[in-house]
Amino acid sequence: MLADLRIDNYALIEHLHLKPSGRLTIITGETGAGKSIMLGAIGLLLGNRADTRLLFNQKSKCVVEGHFDVGHHPEVLDIFRAEDLDVEDDGMAILRREITPAGKSRAFVNDTPVTLEVLRRIGEHLVDIHSQHDTLLLADEAYQLSLLDAYAGLLPVRARYGAAFAGLRQAEADARALEKHLAQQQRELDYNSFLLNELEDAKPRTGEQEELEEELKLLENAEEIKSKLTQAADALTESEYAASGTLKGVVSVLGQLAGYADTYAALRERLQSALIEVNDIADELTQAEQRTEADPKRLGVIEERLNLLYTLQRKHGVRSPQELLTVWDDLRGRVGNVQELETRLETTRTAVKAARADVQRIGQELSEGRKLAFPKFEQETRDLLAELGMPNARLVVRHEPAPTPQASGLDAVGLLFTANRGAKPQPLAKAASGGEFSRLMLAVKYLLADKTALPTIIFDEIDTGISGEVALKVARLLRQMAAQHQCLAITHLPQMAAAGDLHYFVYKEETPERTVSRLKVLDKSERIAEIAQMIGGTTPGKAAVQSAKELLKAS
Questions:
Q1: Smallest Cα–Cα separation from 159: which of 348, 369, 409?
Q2: To the nearest whole number, what is the mean pLDDT of the chain?
Q3: Which of 2, 218, 290, 304 is the most buried (most CB within 10 A)?
Q4: Which H helix or E strand runs over 168?
Q5: Cα dihedral 153/135/484/469 (nearest 10)
Q6: Distances in whole angstroms, Cα of residue 254 to Cα of each of 142, 238, 264, 270, 277
Q7: Contact of 204 with 309, CB cutoff 8 Å
Q8: Helix, strand or coil, per DSSP, at residue 383
Q9: Using CA atoms, how far apart are residues 204 and 326, in angstroms rounded to an integer?
Q10: DSSP state of 465
Q11: Are 209 and 306 in contact (CB under 8 A)?
């Protein structure tokens, strides 16, 4: 609901402040006084294109600001959450548009800068302007279907369908992504499997290459090693000047001196220990010499194994045994991943089938509900149009299966209209003239007034082409609809003007510099005078004044 509107520096408007009623606000005034200009300013709040030529003062910026109660508009709150915009605790939101003299346009929601697209998305749920030349939302088939579902009481079913449809789209997207990934992996599967089998057959292990390289050195130099070990062992125990023999002699000498001092005894014990160690070393050298043998067969096995490990490393572009083991683990993961992807894809395809079944099931429920409600909607609309002076008008709901499930259901739905007997109904945007469309829109919105939270509706000269009894019926319907939600009506008919809860008068004021558009709230006596002038002209007689009083009393 629009709680407050301020317009500064726009066209003929220097300053304008409008606080509409929560129900029906009437705006009247002479032609050219600025009523349509005010609608143009409101259009800026809805994201319309700006034009600096419309600035009242070319040296100052234009500001249009609207205060809206958005607490009862879940679609708007969803946009606020998606765009990380705050809403006041009382549910109020301030939309503001600024146009600088340089032509720069800025949009704000609660003082947070937003794009025009965001402002447009919010505005289309808050204000619906209907004029002779502007069909806006009602000409849009998606919006038509939303209204029809609201009329049929199907919004809860549609919400369930929307959730199921979103689930289906997500499952299908997951399946497509897995299929693409799996196809890529499968293209590489044969080669990766070959490489993996090669490594599985080779079974390289940590530290193996180092061990084999050390053993290879021993086998390749076995004869030299054997000779050196023998030479070393002989030098310790067998040669003429063997170390063990020399040590034995020294031990004997120190034994002879041990009786003279404890120091000699200690030295003898230490040397005896060294002699024992030398003999142990000589034994180990002998044993090592005996174990060392040239083994051509074993040498061939080691060389073959090392060549395999070196070849695998070159093949996989690595420089160490550890990197080769990492490649092995990676190949195991890749080959195993294909099997895992196949399992995941099968699970996802099952989820797609289940989601598709949910969409079909809930979609059929939605379609059946629509089939039951649409004939009643068509008949009620025709009856209302007849009351509004269009006895031959027909509104037809085109309802047929959609080629594929849509976000709105399994149906292709749209409104077709004709105002003339025998004429084929056409889409609304093509079939209805300005006045016809305004009354049609009034009929549709009247039927929906107690079924959904409609936006603030601004009727721009909905009274075109009507008068007398039809005008009274239009005024009555408008007042009844305004009992459910906010309406503003720009009118030239006294019957309409008398129906409002609040009456604004737009007028021109001539200043020395230029013409300025002004706006004021009419009190009771001023309303009588204004409505009397709408009936009887600039100088209404007593009859016109009396008729004005009667219209106000009847409303």
A1: 409
A2: 86
A3: 2
A4: helix 155-202
A5: -110
A6: 117, 23, 6, 11, 18
A7: yes
A8: helix
A9: 11
A10: T
A11: yes
Q: Which amino acid is at 449?
A: A
d(CA 203, CA 182): 28
d(CA 408, CA 363): 9
Q: Following CA atoms 270, 272, 278, 280 in sequence, which dihedral angle do they give, to the nearest 10 degrees? A: -110
| Percent helix / strand / coil, the chain, rounded to 5 | 55, 20, 25
Question: Could you please report the per-residue DSSP string of 271-287?
Answer: HHHHHHHHHHHHHHHHH
Rounded to 5 degrees, φ, ψ at 475 are -60, -40
The 10 Å Cβ neighbour count of residue 194 is 10
CB 553 within 8 A of CB 528: no
Concatenate the DSSP letters of all residues of 88-119 into one string. Answer: -TTSEEEEEEEE-TTS-EEEEETTEEE-HHHH
Which position has the token pair 């409002």? 500
* Residues 372-387: b if buried by 16+ CB within 10 A, e if exposed: ebbeebeebbbebbeb
Residue with tokens 């604004």: 504
Whether residue 134 is predicted with pLDDT greater than 50 in this model: the reply is: no
Mean pLDDT of 342-358: 92
